[in-house]
Amino acid sequence: MSDPYTLYYLRQAEGRYSGDYRGNSQKGDGLGSFLGGLFRRIFPLLTSGAKAVGKEALSTGIGLLKDAITGRSMKESVRERISQAGTNLTTKAANKMESMVGSGYKKRKRRRRTQSRVSTKRRRVTQRRSKSRKVRRRRRKRDIFG
Question: How far is CA 29 from the centre of its chain?
């Protein structure tokens, strides 16, 4: 009985299993689940922010090159362009945050059907006629079966 497979199954049958596999010991979703959900919600904001910063950096670089070509001092030009880029980015971020703010669940409005004027006029006319006329009741002829 030195075969390891036979020994394994005999021990398992006796209830004295001492193998390597212990099963899954994790009991909850864990921290990774929480961070994953958080990352999924924040990632689109980060990507759009990175795009905005990249575009602003490109426009600032182009502005610096224009200033260098015109002969302006680099120190003044950098200060002015960086402050301008900062204000542009803050206004863009503020506009983005304002557009993201919602008002919660919107109540669904039911559409009311509007009646055409022609149908309401016809209905009124028929009601007036029925009131003014005397209603005659016809006698039904009865046969032997009914």
Answer: 24
Assessment of whether the complete model's pTM goes beyond 0.70: no
Q: Copy the structure tokens of residue 26.
A: 């994790």
CA nearest 52: which of 81, 100, 80, 91?
Answer: 91
List the one residue out of 85, 37, 39, 40 whose CA is nearest residue 59.
85
Phi, psi angle pair for 29, to nearest 5°: -75, -30
Between the CA of residue 10 and those of 4, 21, 23, 46, what are the distances in Å?
10, 16, 19, 57
pLDDT digit string, tens, across residues 92-135 = 988 888 887 777 777 788 887 776 665 555 555 555 555 555 55
The C-alpha atoms of residue 69 and residue 63 are separated, in whole angstroms, by: 10
d(CA 10, CA 12): 5
Parse the chain into domains and list their residue ranges.
Answer: 44-97
